Amino acid sequence: MADVLTPEQRRLNMSRIRGRNTKPEKALRSALHAEGLRFRIHRRDIPGCPDVVFPKRKIAIFVDGCFWHGCPQHQTVPRTNAAFWKKKLQQNRQRDKVVTQTLKSDGWTTLRFWEHDVRKDLPAVVKAIKRSVRLAK
């Protein structure tokens, strides 16, 4: 099936997709802050540049987008340029594994949540994070 957009329109569309400060990330940060938790965001000196970081407790939190990280429930591979996208999404998943392993070997606790989990059940996600923060004291 041919793309309904021109290559220039598609490129513009894809370039505007955010990699950070997404709605699920903002909702999670707001909920964590409301619970009295204080954290840092997007620390570039930590492998993978986690979305939320508790540096003293060595906890890194990632909110993975269903499309970009290959959610088992919602994953779709675009029909246009399918080979490129299949390879790209596999590389993203592999990079996630490497980042998680690297952080673990450095003594970090890594928590990964799908964007749909944050959207559907934010209180459960916050509860899991609070539990990890409490345990790391």
From TrEMBL:
Q: Which domain of life is it from?
A: Bacteria
Q: Identify the InterPro entries for this entry.
A: DNA_mismatch_endonuc_vsr, DUF559, Restrct_endonuc-II-like
Residue ranges constituting the DUF559 domain according to the UniProt record = 90-133
Alphabetical GO biological process terms: mismatch repair
Q: What is its EC number?
A: 3.1.-.-
Alphabetized UniProt keyword annotations: DNA damage, DNA repair, Endonuclease, Hydrolase, Nuclease
Per the database entry, which stretches of residues form a coiled coil? none
GO terms (molecular function) for this protein are: endonuclease activity; hydrolase activity
Q: Which family does it belong to?
A: Belongs to the vsr family.
Q: What does this protein do?
A: May nick specific sequences that contain T:G mispairs resulting from m5C-deamination.
Provide the protein name.
Very short patch repair endonuclease
Source organism per UniProt:
Bradyrhizobium zhanjiangense
Q: What is the lineage of its organism?
A: Bacteria, Pseudomonadati, Pseudomonadota, Alphaproteobacteria, Hyphomicrobiales
